[in-house]
Design goal:
Blueprint: H1 2-12, H2 24-31, E1 36-38, H3 44-57, E2 58-60, E3 74-76, E4 80-84, E5 89-92, H4 98-101, H5 104-109, E6 113-116, E7 124-126, E8 130-138, H6 145-160, E9 164-166, E10 172-174, E11 180-182, E12 184-188, E13 192-200, H7 205-211, E14 220-222, H8 235-238, H9 244-260, E15 268-269, H10 276-291, H11 293-296, E16 303-313, E17 316-327, E18 330-337, H12 341-344, H13 360-371, H14 383-400
Parallel strand pairs: 1-4, 2-3, 5-6
Antiparallel strand pairs: 3-15, 4-8, 5-7, 8-13, 9-10, 10-11, 12-13, 14-16, 16-17, 17-18
Helix pairs in contact: 1-9, 3-10, 13-14
Pathway: Protein modification; protein lipoylation via exogenous pathway; protein N(6)-(lipoyl)lysine from lipoate: step 2/2
Keywords: Transferase
Family: Belongs to the LplA family.
């Protein structure tokens, strides 16, 4: 009986967070019937917020021993599976640099959203035909990543005759072609963990390829996590006519059957003095944080841009290394290294840019102002300073386009 309830709920596609008025009670109600949640919202920030809310607000009882932290409002004896798709979005790993990973100019022009998730790993492109699957559970679930991918591979083989296998990087690789079908990342916390992975059904590979940079730009030096570029294949290319909705339905049914076996009791919600409004407010705060420019761009690890500038001084050819330091998406310093000390000193003219934003529009405007010569301005740039300012403009532009 319980299994049938789980499958009906999975097939029903619970409309989680479909509107701003949806309360977290609908999430808990769905979880009371099924271990599978399917979000009807295709906003990347909402779906990442829901995933993080589940990860931080639920405790999972190891081996169903019934032990739980009484200070935590919700606990379960089984993992939760969250499935969703997004509007076109570019999602960075927790420790990545968007100016290294993405063609931001094109991304902004096409209206593709940029997000930074809480897990590590590489940059990925989402759209309505790239399924996102997140397995959320207790801490030891982190060790089951290969098992999660093998389970998915078995579903694809059984349902569609598509054979694939996980590699050491926790990608899912199509056996016949060697092409990537799924990439994954994970987060490990004190109590919980989650493993989330994509599944390409009919993603626009041309936009994906254009939005994600093919290789790192030489003038940007960084220790941020770098993505590994791979050739990919859609399920639809292997089984024409296969739709995203069909795959989601089949995944929900298979996972519902799988997790149903281990459920010994209905999950419960501990009594709290706060109401569901507090949970909704928490979800809203998480979403707002994920949308914040200071999170998406400001959490970028420190990096520098460096360029060799060729100069002529009193008929003598020379060169100077021009370095621009950026931390948390803010200019932090400028260096000019040259055998001629007087040229190195020109770096002082850029000091007023320190602690200003590396946001493309703001940065370009601030540097252009330096180049605007005013006859009444005794501080207008010299010829060498104009050269360095022009190179700075070029680096800012190339970092974005």
């Amino acid at each position: 009986m319980l299994c049938r309830q789980l499958l009906r709920c999975a097939r029903a596609w619970q409309p989680l967070l479909a509107t701003s008025t949806t309360r977290s009670a609908s999430i808990l109600s769905a979880l009371n019937s099924s271990p599978v949640l399917i979000s009807s919202n295709n906003d990347i920030y909402t779906n990442l917020a829901l995933e993080h809310w589940l990860y931080t607000n639920i405790r999972f009882n190891q081996d169903g021993d019934g032990k739980s932290n009484e200070s935590v409002g919700i606990h379960f004896n089984h993992p939760i599976l969250l499935i969703w798709t997004d509007e076109p979005s570019l999602v960075l790993g927790r420790h990545q640099n968007p100016w290294v990973e993405a063609n931001l100019g094109l991304v902004n022009k096409l209206g593709i959203k940029v997000a930074r998730r809480h897990s590590g790993g590489g940059c990925v492109y989402h759209d309505e035909n790239n399924i996102n699957i997140s397995v959320i559970g207790e801490r030891k679930l982190f060790e089951n990543r290969q098992e999660n991918l093998r389970f998915l591979a078995n579903i694809l083989d059984k349902k569609y005759g598509i054979k694939c296998e996980p590699n050491k990087r926790h990608d899912l690789i199509h056996s016949a072609t060697g092409l990537k079908m799924s990439g994954s990342a994970a987060k490990l916390g004190r109590h919980n963990s989650y493993h989330h992975f994509t599944l390409l059904v009919d993603t626009d590979k041309e936009i994906m390829k254009a939005a994600i940079r093919e290789k790192q730009q030489d003038f940007i030096k960084t220790n941020s996590s770098l993505s590994t570029r791979s050739s990919v294949i859609n399920l639809n290319e292997l089984k024409p006519g296969l739709t995203t909705n069909q795959v989601i339905s089949d995944l929900a049914q298979a996972y519902g059957e799988h997790y149903c076996k281990g459920i010994s009791e209905q999950p419960s919600r501990k009594s709290k003095t706060e109401g569901d409004e507090d949970d909704l407010a928490s979800l809203t705060r998480i979403k707002q944080d994920l949308m914040d420019w200071n999170w998406i761009y400001g959490m970028t690890p420190r990096f520098k841009m460096e360029r060799v500038v060729n100069l002529v001084d009193r008929g003598k050819d020379m060169s100077a290394s021009f370095r621009v330091h950026v931390d948390k998406a803010v200019f932090k310093g400028f260096e000019i290294e040259c055998d001629e000390p007087s040229i190195s000193a020109y770096s002082d003219r850029f000091k007023h840019l320190v602690n200003t934003s590396f946001n493309y529009k703001d940065a370009m405007v601030n540097v252009v102002k330096m180049l605007q010569v005013d006859d009444n301005n005794l501080q207008s740039l010299t010829g060498y300073e104009q050269i360095f300012a022009t190179h700075l403009l070029q680096m800012i532009h190339e970092a974005n386009f």
